[in-house]
Design the sequence.
């Protein structure tokens, strides 16, 4: 059924076609009703087997129970797939579909379009789409007990599917280095999109229905994310939002989005943030972009690099160790003199970032100049005349720390 193409042409005005269209519109609601009862039976059977499997797996592994659950799950998905093609497709084709149904079918074709080029992603996103479609209907029409039973399955299965999707992206992006690869930009975009989708649809429901210790760890970050859901976001807001998403991912998707991949995602955000500071003309906006970059550098170093075990080289490991020792010394100032603590932290971050930018192929000359001016203002760099005369010639002199 997936292979059917959606061809909706103008209606033929012959008497026969008018009669056919009228009959179809009368028959479709009945067909939807039949499908609804069929789906309900398949859903109840699947939930019964899911609950048996979940309960049993707490005590021991029973292959027979797992097999029954897998079979019931596949049958349930088949019924949902048939519903989309037999009911929604026909309603869209004859012009009687609601906006929800039109959007549902458009989304269905968007997912199935992945089949030829990205089969693994298609396999997981197709399941996710069908389950989400049924979940929407249950939330509106289902009884409280059914909603509660379905939510338990829904959250469990969605966790599995999102982890599989992110793992698939990780495989595509992972290599032997932690360096950001601009040629894989579309994968980074998909990772951030998928993380946001999970937080909006799954994490929010978990917080609402099944608050546990795992959720406690990310509630503060989730509340930060919510502040970016209102209003139009600019480039700075989007970078900050993605920074929050990565922070949450380090707690929820440690294995699906391993450290080496998360590190590349952070590198991508750092590149975007540096370019924003470098390209922003208005002083006030540039200062806000700079503050965001400093926060991102701290997030990257504290939430990610501090947990890193395997380094590309011993030199890189030793360099970070020296940075970390300096950072720990600076944090001792936090209670005594907060302003000095913030200043010294910025100095450390700028100097460390300048070392990295010096090795980068990207032209970061403007942000290097910006950093140097900041360091001069903070008294961490001396400013000397940028030229001197020698035998009638002017020779440039670099600023020195």
Sequence:
């Amino acid at each position: 059924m997936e292979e059917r193409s959606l061809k909706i042409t103008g209606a033929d005005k012959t008497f026969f076609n008018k009669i056919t269209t009228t009959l179809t519109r009368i028959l479709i609601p009945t067909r939807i009703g039949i499908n609804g009862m069929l789906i309900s039976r398949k859903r109840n059977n699947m939930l019964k087997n899911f609950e048996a499997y979940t309960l049993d797996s707490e005590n021991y592994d029973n292959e027979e129970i797992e097999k029954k659950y897998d079979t019931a799950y596949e049958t349930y998905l088949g019924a949902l797939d048939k519903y989309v093609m037999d009911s929604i497709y026909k309603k869209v084709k004859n012009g009687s579909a609601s906006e929800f149904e039109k959007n549902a079918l458009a989304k269905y074709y968007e997912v199935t379009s992945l089949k030829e080029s990205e089969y693994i992603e298609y396999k997981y996103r197709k399941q996710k789409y069908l389950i989400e479609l049924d979940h929407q209907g249950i939330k509106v029409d289902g009884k409280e007990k059914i909603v509660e039973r379905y939510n338990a399955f829904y959250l469990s299965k969605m966790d599995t599917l999102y982890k599989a999707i992110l793992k698939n992206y990780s495989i595509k992006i992972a290599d032997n280095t932690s360096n950001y690869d601009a040629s894989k930009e579309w994968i980074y975009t998909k990772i951030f999109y998928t993380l946001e989708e999970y937080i909006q649809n799954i994490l929010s429901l978990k917080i609402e229905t099944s608050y546990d210790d795992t959720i406690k760890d990310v509630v503060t970050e989730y509340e930060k994310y919510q502040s970016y859901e209102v209003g139009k976001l600019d480039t700075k807001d989007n970078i900050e939002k993605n920074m929050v998403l990565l922070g949450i991912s380090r707690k929820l998707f440690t294995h699906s989005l391993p450290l080496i991949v998360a590190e590349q995602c952070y590198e991508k955000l750092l590149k975007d943030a540096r370019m924003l500071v470098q390209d922003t003309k208005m002083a006030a906006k540039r200062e806000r972009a700079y503050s965001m970059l400093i926060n991102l550098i701290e997030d990257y170093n504290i939430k990610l690099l501090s947990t890193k075990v395997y380094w590309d080289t011993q030199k890189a490991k030793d360099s970070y160790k020296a940075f970390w020792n300096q950072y720990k010394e600076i944090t001792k100032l936090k209670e005594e003199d907060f302003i000095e603590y913030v200043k010294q932290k910025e100095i450390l971050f700028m100097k460390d970032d300048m070392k990295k930018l010096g090795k980068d192929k990207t032209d970061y000359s403007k942000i290097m100049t910006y950093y140097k001016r900041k360091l001069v203002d903070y008294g961490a760099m001396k400013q000397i005349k940028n030229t001197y005369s020698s035998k009638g010639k002017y020779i440039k002199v670099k600023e020195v720390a």
